[in-house]
């Protein structure tokens, strides 16, 4: 997975820089989302893996499949990816593009996983506290995982806060085995 991210980063950065200069970050994010979805279809994967088509033919086929969702610059982006045999990177490119966009907009998505469903007011308080701590606008998504036993697991980008009972027990077991 890290290899795909490494390969996708220059393409995502180029798309992001172009979209930022064109003041069309949302448009490019939506366009890349469609492209990523198209690239994940099984029939499309088979066509793109076909050795009988040239890279240019694969690019044109992909452009046709995207239809009106890809503007002229997006179509050129697809052709460039096809020429470099990188169409399979589109999901990673879309993901990285959205990360760059969120960093620019000073926003972050936070996943809060708890043993029980958290009330909305608790999630709102948590969002405010994290917004202050991370100096960003925070969007909180709550999920339930009964295996946590109690407490919560918070993921904000690369930052993970594990305050679950399961996490504490794992730390205690590790300390006892050391």
**Would you count the extended β strands for me?**
4
Oligomeric composition of the shown chains: single chain
State the end-to-end CA separation: 31 Å
Low-confidence stretches: none
Alpha-beta classification:
alpha+beta
- Count of DSSP H/I helices: 8
User: Could you give the order of the helices and strands?
Assistant: HHHHHHEHEEEH
CATH topology of the largest domain: Peroxidase, domain 1
Percent of residues in helices: 55-70%
CATH architecture of the largest domain: Orthogonal Bundle
| Total of domains | 2
Protein name: ATP synthase subunit delta
Subcellular location: Cell membrane; Membrane
Family: Belongs to the ATPase delta chain family.
Membrane topology: Peripheral membrane protein
Structure description:
- Its main location: membrane.
- Belongs to the ATPase delta chain family.
- Pfam families: OSCP.
- With 178 residues, the protein is α+β, with helices and mostly antiparallel strands.
- It has two domains: 2-102, Peroxidase, domain 1 (Orthogonal Bundle), CATH 1.10.520.20; 107-177, no CATH class.
- The chain is built from eight helices and four strands.
- A four-stranded mixed beta sheet has the order 2-1-3-4, sandwiched between helices.
- Strand 3 and strand 4 form a beta hairpin.
- Helix 1 packs antiparallel against helix 2 (25-40), helix 1 (2-21) packs across helix 6 and helix 4 (55-66) packs antiparallel against helix 5 (72-83).
- The chain is elongated and about 60 Å long.
- The two termini are 31 Å apart.
- The relative contact order is 0.12.
């Amino acid at each position: 997975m890290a290899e795909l991210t490494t390969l996708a980063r220059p393409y995502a950065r180029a798309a992001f820089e172009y979209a930022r200069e064109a003041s069309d970050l949302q448009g490019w994010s939506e366009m890349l989302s469609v492209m990523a979805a198209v690239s994940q279809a099984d029939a499309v994967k088979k066509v793109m893996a076909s050795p009988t088509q040239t890279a240019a033919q694969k690019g044109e086929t992909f452009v046709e499949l995207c239809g009106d969702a890809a503007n002229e610059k997006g179509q050129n982006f697809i052709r460039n990816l096809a020429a470099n045999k990188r169409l399979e990177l589109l999901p990673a490119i879309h993901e990285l593009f959205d990360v760059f966009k969120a960093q620019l907009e000073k926003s972050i998505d936070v996943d809060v996983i708890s043993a029980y469903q958290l009330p909305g007011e608790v999630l709102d308080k948590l969002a405010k506290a994290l917004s202050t701590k991370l100096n960003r606008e925070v969007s909180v998504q709550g999920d339930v995982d009964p295996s946590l036993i109690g407490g919560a697991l918070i993921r904000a980008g690369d930052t993970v806060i594990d305050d679950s009972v399961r996490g504490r027990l794992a730390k205690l077991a590790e300390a006892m085995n050391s």
